[in-house]
Amino acid sequence: MAAAFSWIRAEPMGIHVAPADVWIDPARPVETALVTHGHADHARGGHGRTVATPETLAIMQLRYGVEADSAVRAAPVTYGETLELRGGVRATFVPAGHVLGSAQILLEHAGERVVITGDYKRRADPTCPPFEVTPCDVFITEATFGLPVFRHPPIADEMAKLLSARENDQGRCVLVGAYALGKAQRVIAELRAAGYSETIWLHGAMERMCRLYEDHGVDLGDLKAVAGVPKAALVNSIVICPPSALNDRWSRRLPDPVTAMASGWMRVRQRARQRNVELPLIISDHADWDELTHTIAQVNPAETWITHGREEALLRWCELTQRKARALALVGYEDEDD
After folding, report:
1. In contact, 189 and 214? CB cutoff 8 Å
2. What is the residue extent of each domain of the chain?
3. Residues β-bridged to residue 202
4. Which tens digits make up the pLDDT trace of 307-316?
5. Distance CA 248, CA 237 (A)
6. Which residue of 59, 123, 229, 276 has the smallest Cβ count within 10 Å?
7. Do 28 and 44 form a contact (C-beta atoms < 8 A)?
8. Could you tell me the CA-to-CA distances from 264 to 31, 151, 174, 296 in Å, in that order?
9. Which fold has domain 8-149+286-327?
């Protein structure tokens, strides 16, 4: 009799589904890759065939040159659609709530169910469908913010801080560093939800991804590129840029910017100081400690496999709550500027 879950293996380069000979988010090119979402530590070009949601394929085409219109190179799968893979394996893509197009992947084989979450969050996000709890035998979870210190505040509070800085620092602008995929668009959408209807200005590196979101039905309001705009026109405005541009020469063309950073890591004061961030905004597209533990309890799997972050604390929590768990040794996963 085969050992339970022996058909799915955690290899250093990713999750290998042996009967189907496919990989989940592999760290190097493979013949067939199932990709959870478009961030660079999960999505890479060069695969023989890439299976992902249409939105993720569009993101990968924009960032890595994956041929989204080629049936040979790319295979779109919608949420809730089940694929019949080789070896009697079934794969279903389920919303993960992380960024546009992000998915959990439910794998079914030999009467066993495994859910690979990729990255996920449980907070409402106007730019992507919410996380769906999916019952399974093995739940493979990220642990990016897998420490009790990480408890993200309500995003409305962080938007209030941002808008207050704009109102109170007259003669300046607020420059917000935000990851180009997911975080920037969420900040913009949340500003709109908070009632901010004025132009939001973009660093050139942000524009194409924001337009891709708009092409997929996400309303971001009036966006304009900063390039060529007189400094005086940007006074009392909000500008969105990549985190790397916060303190470089590009930012000097702006009117005395208040430097802000939208990231779950802004909970750590040292990180804010290292980046010379004047206004830390604790906004994350990952689950915090309470959301990680609550999700595991909701799913209630026979086993929890933990990866991508602070595995030890979450392993200890599982032990204290009598839950079977293990840490995976995957390579190529890095902290995003979340």
Report:
1. no
2. 8-149+286-327, 155-281
3. 225, 240
4. 988 789 999 9
5. 19
6. 276
7. yes
8. 35, 9, 19, 20
9. Metallo-beta-lactamase; Chain A (3.60.15)
